[in-house]
Specification:
Order of helices and strands: HHHHHHHHHHHHH
Helix content: over 70%
Distance between the termini: 21 Å
Number of strands: 0
Strand content: under 5%
Shape: globular
Structural class: mainly alpha
Number of helices: 13
Number of domains: 1
């Protein structure tokens, strides 16, 4: 999960760097098409076998596809560190839901940890600010979608191979952007295509590492490690994009991180 979080941090920063040259939805479609090609050798002949959980696989593709299109649009419009901090609420919400689905008891202490993390989300978001723009609200919407992605990935971990799940995720995300692509198309330069290819490699290796982590460990242990994305993104966004996260973003992110770590230990 450490590898996945670091690579996701790099890919998240690449999106706003590429956005001035091509539309975010174009980045979604092209990067996932590249990702599919990169994953085909890894998939091998396993794709010929019938899926064990076809409807769950389709649900993951739909939820992942829609949330990824919204997420890329959010990264192009909002501060990358702020959007990333908001996305940390996804595993926080997903853990108690997964526990209920799997028949585990959610104690009052766990609900208290969820409430503390929700307050942290409000600190990052600060909806009372006049300058809250559409990019921030798009990040909130994408985070809600990520909850569904985390849940379906957790349920798929014991039923489908990591290779099939990762490729299915890329297919779903590529298909989700196709209806919007004709209106947004801009012919990319070779340099832009190179950046999109790098983005695809980071995404695909990160997804493979994340799915592998879910198959090896409990979600309550694996999910908190995703918080390594924030320091990686903060450094890269500052050095590359000149974006400096404010103290509220770090304070709220610390609240969310502490809530999720506490939830994993309860």
């Amino acid at each position: 999960m450490v590898v996945a979080s670091t690579l996701f941090g790099v890919s998240n920063t690449l999106v706003p760097a590429l956005a001035p040259f091509v539309a975010p939805v174009q980045i979604v479609v092209l990067s996932n098409c590249f990702a599919i090609l990169l994953a085909l050798p890894w998939l091998g002949k396993g794709w010929l076998a019938p899926p064990r959980a076809p409807w769950l696989l389709v649900a993951m593709m739909v939820v992942s596809g829609v949330s990824n299109v919204v997420w890329f649009e959010a990264l192009a419009r909002a501060n990358v560190s702020l959007a990333t901090a908001l996305s940390f609420a996804a595993p926080l919400i997903a853990m108690p839901i997964a526990a209920m689905i799997l028949g585990e008891r959610v104690t009052p202490a766990r609900w208290a940890a969820v409430a503390w993390g929700f307050l942290g989300t409000l600190v990052v978001l600060r909806p009372w600010r006049a300058e809250v723009g559409p990019g921030v609200w798009l990040a909130v919407l994408a985070t809600i979608g990520f909850v569904g992605v985390y849940l379906t990935l957790r349920l798929l971990a014991g039923q489908e191979t990591p290779a099939r799940t990762v490729v299915a995720m890329s297919v779903g995300q590529a298909l989700s952007g196709l209806p919007l692509l004709p209106a947004a198309w801009q012919t990319p330069s070779l340099e832009t295509l190179g950046g999109i290819l790098l983005l695809a490699a980071c995404m695909q290796i990160g997804r493979a590492a994340m799915q592998r982590a879910f198959s090896l460990g409990r979600a309550s242990v694996v999910m908190p490690m995703d918080f390594l994305r924030l320091p990686a993104i903060a450094v890269i966004a500052w050095a590359w994009l000149g974006q400096v996260p404010d103290v509220w973003t770090f304070a709220g992110a610390l609240m969310i991180v502490s809530a999720t770590v506490l939830l994993a230990r309860l």
